[in-house]
Design goal:
The complex is a heterodimer. Chain A is an all-alpha fold. In chain A, 74% of the residues lie in helices and 0% in strands. The relative contact order of chain A is 0.10. Chain B is an alpha/beta fold. In chain B, 40% of the residues lie in helices and 25% in strands. The longest helix of chain B has 20 residues. The relative contact order of chain B is 0.18. The chains are: A mainly alpha, B alpha/beta.
Chain lengths: 221, 234
Amino acid sequence: MNVLGSFRPGGSPLHRLPAWAKVLLLAVWAIVAVIFSDPVTSAGMALAAIMLLISVLPAWKPTLKGMAFIVVVAALAGVYQVYRGDYSSAIDIAADLIGLFALSLAVTSSTPMGDMLDLATAGARPFRRIVPPAIPGLMFSIMLRAIPEVATIMRQSREAARARGVNRSIRALMIPTATRTVGFALDLGAALHARGIGDEAAPDAPAVPRSRSTRRSRTSR
Amino acid sequence: MIEFRSACVVAPDTGVPILQPTTLTLEEQRVSIIGANGSGKSTLARLINGLALPVEGQVLVDGLDTRKHGSRVRRRVGFLFTDPSSQLIMPTAIEDVMLSLRRTIHSKSERLTAALEALDDIGLQGKANVSVNALSGGQRQLLALAGVLSTTPSVVVADEPTTLLDLRWKAHVGALLHALPVQLIEVTHDLESAARAQRTLVVDDGAVVFDGNPVDAVAHYRELMYRKSVGERA
């Protein structure tokens, strides 16, 4: 499921709520869902979460795909409880899973990445002596940005292996994927430096330590 | 003004020279750099904003040493990469431009307005909330350029900015670059674009082998490549 770009602009109540309130809602929701284990509360909360998800008008295809996935997981968890003869737990657990997943989708669909980043930055402020406040948020968004990129690299590596008649070799898939992922990371690092992002962490430091800079130029000249 | 003072780069593990000691002063508003793959032209470009550092010698931008004042140099020198995918850091178009503006504009609403304007200016209106992965190659390069320009650099170094683009986008991005009110240093394989500059450097085997008029530079480069291909066959 694609967590990237799942944000859809809109005017729903959830869209208007600040990011911190949504994250708090998600946390409280999770705690309540765990504490109350009666099936009626759980089912009710799941229903409410799904309605909230619908209210933000998310991108339908990825949302339905994601929901289908969690329904399967919830069904498996439920079936296990039924097998143990605990019908009430079956409904409770399945509904909790579905509810929380729906709510988190609703939150990501209604919150721009930048807002989440600001929240992460603000949250990291108490630790600014250890980590510059802009860094954790940036790391988080780079991680999100890298997921589809690595997926693309992996698909291309698979195609390249297939084109050369190596269909089932894990090595032929994983080695190029790993090396090219490192290459992507180096490029991304160069781009961060070029745009002066993260400079607050070490003002006026050279872009790269001497040895790495030259190695980098050799590979890219 | 960009100055190279006997700047040279060698590969750290093998000691193979990547760029021979080079001394240059680039004052022209439009400079193009051409040369074969692996000739060292990207390294020359990367030296300008401190992405690569000279092993010996210095590179100065407006009198600032790239080694001592890396981040101040990079505030003046925007860098456009060949592959916009690795240049774009944030998941959506607007967020990526806003990231560039973080340092200069602290108010979030002002930052949003400025980023929307930057997208309009570059011709990406309506793409603000589109995922970077859903943009076409040309649109991504435009977005990368918007991110670079929103920090208002006085120099833009473009490392083969149109190599991955189709003819239509190549013309579009090329025209945009050449219309910018900044000093443009363009590394390119597009000889037509190279010829639009005021001054052209030809790089071969880690050295600047021609420096001057673009038309003569292109002729020199063609001759050089022709001689090499004939030499290999013999």
